[in-house]
Amino acid sequence: MPSNDDVHDDWKNLATSTVSDALDRLGIASQCVGIEPLDTTFRLCGRAFTMRALPASAAGGSLGDYIDDVPPGRVIAIDNAGRMDTTVWGDIMTRAAVKTGIAGTVLDGVSRNVDRSLDMGYPVFSRGRSMRTGKNRVARDGLNVAISIGGARVNDGDVLLGDCDGVVVVPAARESEILEEARRLDEREANIRRALESGMRLDAARRKWRFD
User: Fold this and answer.
1) What is the percent of the chain where pLDDT is above 90?
2) What residues form DSSP beta bridges with 202?
3) Other CB atoms closer than 10 Å to residue 207's CB: what's the count?
4) How far apart, in whole angstroms, are the C-alpha atoms of residue 140 and residue 153?
5) What is the rounded distance in angstroms from the CA atom of residue 52 to the CA atom of residue 80?
6) Radius of gyration (Cα) for the chain, nearest Å?
7) In terms of pLDDT, which residue wins out, 61 or 135?
8) In a domain, 199, yes or no
9) What stretch of H or E contains 193?
10) Residue 181 lies in a domain
11) Rounded-to-integer distance, Cα 106 and Cα 161, Å
């Protein structure tokens, strides 16, 4: 199982918008469309611990009894096929995740007991919220498997970044390449911001730092 210890510190300081631009430049479609934070102050960064959910009649394992085995610092990523009619995360899961030291949860679906996530400062990113339980409606189909979140493929061990703008996936196989491109873009954006503050025209600043 991949370790979370090797996640480069620079990821924590990069905005998802910058990383998204880097992904675009490299031709990698790894933006999780439609996935938003329950609170705009939430940020997350860590390697994915993946789970796929299916309707209870088509799958076997209990939805939540894996959580005690998730390593600290990982981000739980649950593929519930974008379903809005049943939750896959709630109060008890949030409490267990905080106790275990999990870095956050990303859902292609909805969560409930949102107040607990907000009160405990536990980052949850999802398609929305609902009160409707997943008990007897959803079951675990696989752990540490390739899944889809907001149309983006997520493999166990990929880096997940989340902030007020949403979530991006950094495929582990291209992590160094994406980080290098994101650093370049971040530096260019910082230069342009400083130039604007000093009175330079935007078009001139964009030309100077080749930001197009």
Assistant:
1) 74
2) none
3) 11
4) 18
5) 6
6) 18
7) 135
8) no
9) helix 175-197
10) no
11) 10
Q: For residue 211, is it within any domain?
A: no
For residue 20, what are its two tokens?
């998204």
Structure-token match 């991949």, residue found: 2
Name the one residue in this structure whose structure tokens are 């650093």. Answer: 183
Q: Which domain holds residue 22?
A: 10-172
Cβ distance 16 to 171 under 8 Å?
no
Q: How many domains does the chain have?
A: 1
Please name the residue that has the structure tokens 């031709």: 27
Backbone phi and psi for residue 65, each to the nearest 5 degrees, phi listed first = -80, 5
Question: Facing residues of 32 across strands?
Answer: 167
Distance of CA 27 to the CA centre of its chain: 19
- Lowest pLDDT segment from 24-33, 138-147, 156-165: 138-147
Q: Are 130 and 48 in contact (CB under 8 A)?
A: no
CATH number at residue 64: 3.50.30.40
CB atoms within 10 A of CB 31: 22
Q: Rounded to the nearest 5°, which phi and psi values hold at 99?
A: -60, -40
Please state the pTM of the whole predicted model: 0.91
Q: Is residue 101 in a domain? A: yes
Give the Å distances, CA to CA, from 82 to 21, 46, 137, 144, 182: 25, 22, 14, 19, 29
- The two tokens of residue 169 are 């996936």
